[in-house]
UPF0102 protein BBR47_36060 (Brevibacillus brevis), 125 residues
Amino acid sequence: MSDRRRLLGQRGEQLAEGYLVNKGFRIVERNVRTKRGEMDLIALDGKCLVFIEVRTRRSQSFGTAGESITWKKKQKLRELALEYLQKSAQPIPSFRFDVIAIYTGASTQGEDFMKPVIEHYESAF
């Protein structure tokens, strides 16, 4: 992955985290890595544990951020969540999967970000 793409992803995750905190979510973990893959954010929305996939794009030229989450990616996120829940020391009354799609509108001349557009899809899958 190129540095530019990695930085865009990191910036998107920061924006998503700020957005969620402003909505009253409590961030539990960031970038949870296992042998199988990575979950971007895990948060609490009240008593509901939320596994959040963040997709950041400069534009929608190649489709929406949400459309980039394939069936295979959804399946991997389900497996990662199950692993996380099995290792959890406390009972989880409910959980869901959300997607945060961010469009930065960044120019091609550098990392000049315009005001991002953030779309939040609760219970996305």
Q: What stands out?
A: The helical segments are 3-22, 71-87.
